[in-house]
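Hey everyone, long-time lurker, first post.

I ran two proteins through the pipeline my lab uses and got sequence/structure pairs for each. Pasting them in order. The first:
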Amino acid sequence: MTSFLRTFKRCLSLAIILCLTLAACGGDPGPSVESSPASSGCSRVVCLYSSYAEAWLLAGGTLVGVTDDAVNERKLDVGDAEIIGTVKEPNAEAIIALEPDLVIFSEDIAAQVDMIDVLTNAGIACSGYRVDAFEDYAEIMKEFCEMNGRMELLEEYVEKPREQIGSAREKCGFDGDGPRVLLIRAFSSGIKAKAEEELAGAILKDLGCKNIADEHPSMLEDLSLEEVIAADPDYIFVTTMGKEEAALSFLEGMIEANPAWESLTAIKEGRFHVLPKDLFHYKPNHRWGESYEYLGELLSE
């Protein structure tokens, strides 16, 4: 989606939300349409995805309902917000019972998208988002801060990480000749190569690296150790899904079963890195700059 279309979509979404929330509060969505839900007294917000819940809180908002990942995985302080199901199975009845003015959901999660008709038919404003890169996050934060009347927070939570990202790009200094990398996602029963659809993959590409999965797309479906050995990447990065210990145990078993891995440049020169979950499994929000800096440091060694 082009930058123009993203901006147009967000502006249209915000306008609809403001009109619906003002109407829910008995307001007249006329000249006062610029008023935010929070400033209009309509601040009952439910979030169905922990990353967006954190962004909403960073933008000065409060929540009345969240999915359990916000508390159990992201460890957010959500105050008195109720748990309204899981990220993949949110409970529509529990959401409606909270009488929210706005429900924030992820466009990447089918179960959430599928329930939007139910919520909108109940008169609840819904806004969906998708974050693939830092600028997507920056756009969301601008919208959230505007809705909460806290535009001053953008300096700390958007502009500061943007500066960190710029510094990381300059430090790497790759100009069309970046290192060749392999990005692996490991879980308890398998491993897969990942490209720019993965958070770390998008950052590696932005820093000028060449992902060998782009040269060998079959790796995205079935990671062939023989192809990896033939490609001989300069760096190997690993992200884990689920329990990290089980994921790494499976990966180690695969590697140990094929002694040829020891011949890889990345292994021999100590450029095999397991990336921390808090910066590379979840969307890092205000820590995007730290994610860039982390990879930038490894790539500068």
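...and the second, right after it:
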Amino acid sequence: MATNKASANWLLESFRQRTIKKTYIALCWGKAEDNFSNHSSLTPIDQNGIVSVCDTHHPFGKSAKTKFKKLADFDTAEHAVSLVQANPFTGRSHQIRVHLQQEKLPIIGDKKYGRIPPKDLSTPLKSLAAEHHFLHAKSLTFRPGPDLDEITVDAPVPQNFELFHQKLSQ
């Protein structure tokens, strides 16, 4: 996003100082509470590409905090799905995915931290869930420079995410 070195340094420092507000949405297996948060220590990515929750005294563990808000529920006799908003305060690798798994709300389609779709899931939904995980970086809110007003940059929801969401609502 930066157009020059000064802007790049400003944005990098904004990420370091955690002044950039990040908003994600995720479709998860399970029924979420209205508002919840997760604060835990996470390991760096291991040789298998996995991040784990660890004890606060772990030599390489780092604090990770995410606030969640339920946006919608899709409850049928066969399965429960929640649409949640995630606002991470820290920026650890796989943080949201690990936190939702820890809350027993794995992200649909997440092959590392999720679970296999229920057998009774319809073929079109199962096929969409197999494509990739349903975690979307919805927006960033930040000041692009020291004397500039805060802006929000929104990213459109990917088509297969929206399609899965629509099919659940039917």
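Reply from user beta_strand_b:
Welcome! Quick read of the second one: The domain at 20-169 is CATH 3.30.2350.10 (Pseudouridine synthase). The beta strands are 21-29, 35-42, 53-54, 62-75, 80-88, 135-142, 151-154.
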